[in-house]
Hints:
Layout: E1 7-10, H1 14-25, E2 30-33, E3 49-50, H2 61-77, E4 82-83, E5 87-92, H3 97-110, E6 115-116, H4 119-125, E7 133-139, E8 142-144, H5 146-158, E9 163-165, E10 168-176, E11 179-187, E12 193-197, E13 200-203, H6 209-215, E14 222-232, E15 240-243, E16 252-256, E17 259-263, E18 267-268, H7 279-289, E19 301-312, E20 327-331, H8 332-336, E21 341-346, H9 352-366, E22 394-396, E23 401-402, H10 403-409, H11 418-425, H12 437-448, H13 453-471, H14 477-493
Helix pairs in contact: 1-5, 1-9, 2-3, 12-13
Amino acid sequence: xxxxxxxVVIGGGATGTGVLRDLALRGIDCLLVEQNDLATGTxxxxxxxxHSGARYVVKDLNSGKECIEENKILKxxxxxxxxxxxxxxxxxxxxxxxxxxxxxxxxxxxxISTKEISPADLKDQEPALxxxxxxxxxxxxxxxxxxxxxxxxxxxxxxxxxxxxTYTRVTGFKIENNRVKGVFIKEKYTGQEEYxxxxxxxxxxxxxxxxxxxxxxxKLNISPDKGVLVIFNHRITxxxxxxxxxxxxxxxxxxxxxxTVFGTxxxxxxxxxxxxxxxxEVLDLLEQGSQLIPDLREMRLIRAFAGVRPLYQPDGTAAxxxxxxxxxxxxxxxxxxxxxxxxxxxxxxxxxxxxAKAAVDHVANKLDVDKPCITHREQIYAPIVRQESSHxxxxxxxxxxxxxMLDKAVADKEKFTLSDVRxxxxxxxxxxxxxxxxxxxxxxxxESRGIDVTEANKLLKDHIQERWKGSRPVLWGGQxxxxxxxxxxxxxxxxxxxxxxxxxxx
Length: 506
């Protein structure tokens, strides 16, 4: 790794990776540092909705305009990261009819196309919906894979010479004469510490941006906001489903691969690491969602999780759904006089490219680089493409993950976990939640990569434990039966609790 670069980017979510790619396309030498794997923060813990902007047009018209513009750009440049499902907004019997007029006016002002569809026609196309729909409109929403999008950004940047270090955290800043000179970093697995000299640092650490800024003696008023989501074991609707009312809890369903993600909530929290859902939060979501999908409580849930939104409130007067979803570029030189540091906070995944452009425009100007942003016209590609394969070649039947996909997922890694592999391939993300594919993948890497038995056992146990965490809040009905099956296989047949020594082969 070069110990001197022009720009260090902190944060490996959609925004940070988008910044890295924009810098690289302008010929700026850059390094990204991420404390975990790519997209393990908010970019990997959300509903996966590529907003049309229609959700925001009544309260925040500017956000609505930004979303529809970026929605169109991302569908053009990142088709392998997006499933263009389309979306629908539905007003149920409980919803305020006056809001529909305001919403239609907002969509028109933002340039978002809407098409009314009769409740009867919609019911024919989406049979799981309630029969008590008052009004329904089609909009250009879509589903986006945050993990693949971040990885595609980094792949594009690396081809242009950029560097990215995951599982590496910033431990401090070197500051001289009120100017940032570089950052101190520490690698998680080896404990190795390094110093990287740079001219500029872009803090794109999302919900952790405040903690990063503290290392430079700066204060950011980030308001962590927790959102809970659940996953069902099938696609409930073919399109993204939104409720046509002021944004609230439990009003978005997004089809992803073989499953549906449903959420979300909005609660202030004290920590960006508060990512566990409770049983009561899940029950509250089902109460809201069953007004649109009457049989929702009888459908099989496979897991629950939470993400933390990095809301920025400079005066601290608003929080939760009252806070803006727009993004803010903070120039610390203007704020406190510290040169060489900017922070990029707030915003949404849909507008990550626009956020990156704003940050890189600022830094490029400081570095006297006059190349304009071209991220809106250069395509990015998923590192791993799902292809037709034979049944025998698949290690994960639910998500059709093949041996070749597992090989590509770890091709440039010395250390990895099955969760790293999951984020790139969807291994274990289908209805069985890794019951069968986890031990196949661990065994495959034992043979193909030559990892020893202890390490392969650790891959297996860590992934089973990680999948179990998300299942606990939804253990009833079909998912309780699935959990018992998994426990029987791993504790009864595979004797999982004893798989700690070299004497226990897989």
